Amino acid sequence: MAKILKKTNLAPQVYEFIVDAPLVAHKCKPGQFVIIRTEEESERIPLTIADFDRKQGTITMIVQAVGNTTKHLCETFNDNDEILDVVGPLGMPSHIENFGTVVCVGGGIGVAPVYPIARALKEAGNKVISIIGARNKDLIIFEDKMAAISDELIITTDDGSAGQKGFVTDPIKKMLESGNMPGMVLAIGPVIMMKNVAETTRPYKVPTVASLNTIMVDGTGMCGGCRVRVGDDNKFACVDGPEFDAHLVDFANLVQRQQMYKGQESLEYGCGGHCKCVGD
Questions:
Q1: Which pLDDT tens digit goes with each residue over 60-107?
Q2: Spatial CB neighbours of 26, under 8 Å, sequence gap ≥ 6
Q3: pLDDT tens, 196-215?
Q4: CATH of 2-90 among 2.40.30.10, 3.30.9.10, 3.30.40.10, 3.40.630.30
Q5: Which are the contacts of 166, defined by CB distance < 8 A and separation ≥ 6?
């Protein structure tokens, strides 16, 4: 059992849960995730660890209420309620080193998993340029947190209601066309966004990493639900990832696999889509 210490509404249908999970907080690293089960009869859903405090023994999870399970969690659970299972940390942690300049891109709820990685990259001595985007200003999250750990923060919105009007790829393209080549680009968010980031950096051969939001069930590689094609290999996002070379990821296959269980996802307590980045 893991007690919810604080629940905060960050944006429409987006909630932050600070949870008492000292064993996870003690071991977790940026880029890893947990799998939770709200109650005995509920499904298991993967959620990224958006922050952690080893001293306080807490982890932070960002959940978007888009499927039945996440809606149940966001609408029913409050401060001092207990989540039945919080299993983790799972997945491979992010590779952190001094690349020189890094560009950290978060789309929508993907900003949450970007944050601890960008913070670790900053602590490793990198110049951190963060780009966060959403459909409109009301859906921007973690703006203050990202600003605090970034040398430069760029905000984009589809409708221009905050920051620059356009997409997260626009400032990346402008940067690359001007000859400013970062040592690494990290992208986390919707699949199409990560694909577009990869296609933007590909001609310039800038190393680009995507954290894949695949379907997951057990988180140990046994179910095979999170299988992805990376280059000539089949990988399992829950144990080999979730981060992979974005230039090698077969995004078309990833999208196809994401659609496989839409019927089951409509059932009671079924998940609403993919997984960890948005918690649906």
A1: 999 988 888 888 899 999 999 999 988 889 989 999 999 999 999 999
A2: 54, 57
A3: 999 999 999 999 999 987 77
A4: 2.40.30.10
A5: 156, 158, 160
pTM (two decimals): 0.88
* Residue 96 CB neighbour total at 10 angstroms: 18
* CATH number of 101-258, picked from 2.30.30.40, 3.40.50.80, 2.40.50.100, 1.20.1250.20: 3.40.50.80
Domain ranges for the chain: 2-90, 101-258
CA angle 58, 63, 66 (to 5 degrees): 165
CA dist list (Å): 264 to 43, 272, 280: 12, 10, 13
- Reading the block at residue 126, the tokens are 């990198």
Residues (pLDDT < 50) of the chain are 268-280
